[in-house]
Amino acid sequence: MLDHALTFFQAQLNSYIRVKTGGQREDIVRFAEIQPPKDITLQNNAITTLLVNLEEERIFRSGAAYTSNLPSGASGSAKPNLCLNLHLMFIANFKEYMEGLRVLSLVLKFFRSYRLFDQQKFPSLNAEIEQLSTELVNLSFMEQGELWRSLEIPCSPSALYKVRMIVFQDEDMDELETGRELADIQTVTTQL
Asked: Which of 85, 90, 92, 117 is the most exposed place for a label (fewest CB within 10 A)?
């Protein structure tokens, strides 16, 4: 689902920028190229999208170990959903600095205009994703410096957004089969 969320934002941003520039820009929002072990390459003359963090949303975490929503009416075990927030960074890497700022401004306007993304307004949103909301993240100068150092890329004009919330649930497979259950475990010791 992470891939669906990122490609959704990429497509929506590209469409928005194309409309706002009168069709002058074609697919300007791209993903970073990552080469093992850790080399991140920003796309030239583009807005590079980079997933910089995942965090669990603990407020919505279900602690219930059992559910009674089974068709037979009986209760059975269920795994709680995993709710994740994404931190997406949009980095302007343009030969002309002012052009980069102009296009980054369009990214900011897009997320200012659209804060909530759901199936009703955005039918292209993957069916597994109920809705996404975005908010601009304000980092202190120290936090920004740490982020750029950890990415090991030169500091560039950018915007960091927190995307709430992707819910992972697997209704088809609650547990992997790991073999037969362990019966009694016996410990054998020997004396020397």
From this structure: 85
User: Which pTM was predicted?
Assistant: 0.78
- Domain range for 24 is 2-59+79-168
CA angle 92, 11, 126 (to 5 degrees): 130
Alpha helices by DSSP H, 21-114: 97-113
Alpha-carbon distance of 1 to 166, in angstroms, equals: 8
- Of 85, 77, 14, nearest to 48 by C-alpha is 14
Q: What CATH code is carried by the domain that includes residue 19? A: 3.30.2000
Q: Dump pLDDT digits (tens) for 157-185.
A: 999 999 998 887 765 554 444 455 555 55
The enclosing H or E element of 15 equals: helix 2-20
CB-based burial label for 126 (10 Å; 0-12, 13-18, 19+): middle
